[in-house]
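REQUEST ID: PR-0412
SUBMITTED BY: lab tech R.K.
PRIORITY: routine
TASK: structure prediction, single protein chain
INPUT:
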Amino acid sequence: MTYRVVAFNEGSDAAGFVVLDQRVGRSVIEGKLTLKETDIDDLTLTVTRDNPLFDAVQPFHTHVSVYDDGHLVFRGRAIKPKKSMETSGMFRREYTFESIEAYLLDSVQRFYEGVGQSPADFLKHLIEVHNSQVEGFQQFQVRNVTVTNAKDNTYRQIEVKSKMLV
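STATUS: complete
OUTPUT:
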């Protein structure tokens, strides 16, 4: 396994800078990629001053891509920086990145009734609403939807949860 991490100043940037790649002498103190089955994946990277990521991270702007033997396994945005200094005097920065699936949290779904819609059509509607509210690099494209149901006439809806003031 050969991991490579490339960072981007903005989610829309095409050119990035190498954060981790043993072949070019870029390393991190620690890295942990957590791929979750039912939640948003995350990546934590800990770096020192000699890494170009050090003090270059802006939450919700800086993005990273993680490659495993050339295959993209994670793309995400920075959310939580932590600054620290060890007893030896070495400065460290720990950055947490959340997967781009978290972009879906940047939009609001309003009440909607999808009577007689197939699962694919209902999903397309949800993504269209999301895409209308976010920047281009945060948008998703619905491709191959394989979920079906026996009747394809199921009643689907988006409910709005109300907050009660006490």
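NOTES: The CA atoms of residues 81 and 95 lie 5 Å apart.
REVIEWED BY: pending
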